[in-house]
Amino acid sequence: MIRLRTIAYRPFHAGLRAILFVGPAILLLVGLLNTASPAGWIVAGVAVAMLVVITFFSGVRIRADETSVAVSLVPFWGKRLRWSDVTSVVVEDVRPFEDFGGWGIKGTQKKHGILLSAGDTRSIRFTLIDGRRYLVAVGEGAEAAVRDLADLAPRKPGDTRFAK
Predict the structure, then answer these.
(1) Alpha-carbon dihedral sign for residues 151, 89, 81, 12
(2) Helix or strand run (H / E) with residue 59
(3) Mind listing the pLDDT tens digit for each residue in 5-40?
(4) Whether pTM exceeds 0.90
């Protein structure tokens, strides 16, 4: 089994993390106020685990190998794209709020595509054969990530997926 290699990772910005902290913080409070029962401790434990994940492991990530590329908003959502379905990989500047309505998993396939953003504007756009687009905002490392993806993707003579 081939293991996917991390090409780009961008943690969530502080503002987005603060928004994501609200739910687990409320759960933690509810759990701590009910420590007289085992359920209160369980709720508090789950809330602490959620806060740890949001603090240390959340963000946008691109991983790839010779057969596919995986785009994800860790730990919430991910999609694996086969290289044979990808028609282009380019760097693009997006305006998350103006074009998509904010950070996170935003957009629709019909208008701009799906945006996975931790708050950056510099994105990598993957366009598929059927016209679907996935934009992954990774910040200033976008150009280097596209070069790394080009090195991993299987290439045939005349392949223009990574053309500038």
Answers:
(1) positive
(2) strand 59-64
(3) 999 998 888 887 888 889 999 999 999 999 999 999
(4) no
